[in-house]
Amino acid sequence: MTTSHTSIPDPSAGDPAAETGQPPQVVIVGGGLAGLAAAAAASEAGLAVQLIEGRRQCGGRAASFEDVSEGTLVDACQHVAMGCCTNFLDLCRLAGIEQWLRRDRTLWFIGPDGRRAACTPASWLPAPLHLAPLLLGMRHFSLREKLALAVGMLRLASWKPAVAEAVEPTAAAWLAARQPERVIELFWQPVIESALGESIDLVGLSAVKKVAVDGFLAHPTAADLWVPTRPLGDLFGDRLVGWLISRGVSIMTGRQVAAVERDSRGRTVGVRVGDELIAADAVILAVPWRAAARLVPGLLPPVDNAFAGSPITAVHLWFDQPIIDLPHAVLVGRVSQWVFQEEQNAHAGMSANDDQSHHCQVVISASRGLCGGDRKLLLETVVGELKGIFPAAREARLLRSRIVTDPTAVLSVRPGVDRVRPPAESAVPNLFLAGDWTATGWPSTMEGAVRSGRLAAAAAARSVGRTAAPLTADLSKNRLIRLLARS
């Protein structure tokens, strides 16, 4: 992938539609959530949209694979949104796929001793008091530990970098001086690593503050889980894509963009796919950072080793009967972090259909060096932990398994990484960037990806004299939370 120059004339300044009578053309490279969100926003702004995806199906990392044993789609890794993910949820609503997101108000924690804690924020209490039932429901903590956790979350919300600090502290360093060890191990570590996809030893405190404020303290519905009930490949690769096509978006899959073409002044004039030049008044690169750097060498800001990915591992298990009587659970103090039951099994409860396998998925974030890289040991460990927690698992027979690891699943939000995350606008007036690695104000999540696509589409629309809709507003924060976050 290279950038080349061509003698193709410059596109007209301002709105090309003023001279041609045709809407401005924007080409989006990449069909992940960022690219799909950009396509939706650009189309709404009145632009003609051409999206090009190198894989056979859109969706990016929010993808599924086929379980050949049953001919069904299985998500490579469980994706979950929270109530604070306003732009992601808005896109799902617009596309008509929100109906396939299950809303879980209760968070299930299972402590090291196997005791369950059903933690449900109170919808009738103002923030941050709405968290009181959630904290009180954590049966694996003493009253003193619960109070320490509450105080720690409020202190985190009011944290801001000291002027004298050259680098912001990591979550682990800050928490070690302010929280009991058990509270760190049994709450902060699983919550932070699940939300940010990175070890608490590496994440910067500003990203953790974002989770605490927007994900828990901001609003009584902020911590709600929105769990897909259909495969991601169906939701995003088929239904979201189908909705975009119905709105006039042209989508090309299975084709690689080889180059971004620019004129003698450096402005983008289109992209090259094979021998074909697809002309564009604006181009949005919605691909991973390294792919974007190859397409436009020298345009992205230089980064160091801190700009890295973090791995997430999903352990897929198929048993001959249901083993879990919960829709999900946070497994604290174990190698396994989250376990999710497949939606069809969740509806079936504990009444087994002997002719059907029952699928569940264990998700482990920041999984580098997991079990020393021994996948057999990892499988034995995870299955052993499930058998120690769920009585039905002790009687069930494991039919098959599959371990899926994405080594760069999310951008590692280490201290200082926000200083090198580029904005949507590039040095080229009509070339824009999207992806959860760009500067969105959010960590590397589905919400961050959707926001990046919408920000890039808005910038592209402005470059051709059009206006795109603004981002969906965050959940409202009351005065107390605003004061805490700004203090």
Helix percentage: 25-40%
Helix count, per DSSP? 15
Largest sheet, in brief, is: 7 strands, mixed
Strand order of the largest sheet: 9-8-17-18-19-16-20
What structural class do you assign from the helix and strand content?
alpha/beta
Terminal residue distance? 46 Å
Mean pLDDT: 90
Strand content: 15-25%
Number of E-state strands: 21
In short:
The protein is of the alpha/beta class and 487 residues long. It has 15 helices and 21 strands. The strands form five sheets. The protein has a seven-stranded mixed β-sheet. It has a five-stranded parallel β-sheet with strand order 11-3-2-15-21, covered by helices on one side.
Task: Explain what you see.
- The protein is α/β, with parallel strands linked by helices.
- The chain has three domains: 2-60 and 230-306 and 415-463, FAD/NAD(P)-binding domain, CATH 3.50.50; 111-223, Guanine Nucleotide Dissociation Inhibitor, domain 1 (Orthogonal Bundle); 309-411, Polyamine Oxidase, Chain A, domain 2 (Alpha-Beta Complex), CATH 3.90.660.
- Helix content is 32%, strand content 22%.
- It has 15 helices and 21 strands.
- The strands form five sheets. Strands 9-8-17-18-19-16-20 form a seven-stranded mixed β-sheet. It has a five-stranded parallel β-sheet with strand order 11-3-2-15-21, covered by helices on one side. The protein has a four-stranded mixed β-sheet with strand order 1-12-13-14, with no helix packed on it.
- β4 (64-67) and β5 form a beta hairpin.
- It is globular.
- The protein starts with a strand and ends with a helix.
- Mean pLDDT is 90; it is low at 1-13 and 345-354.
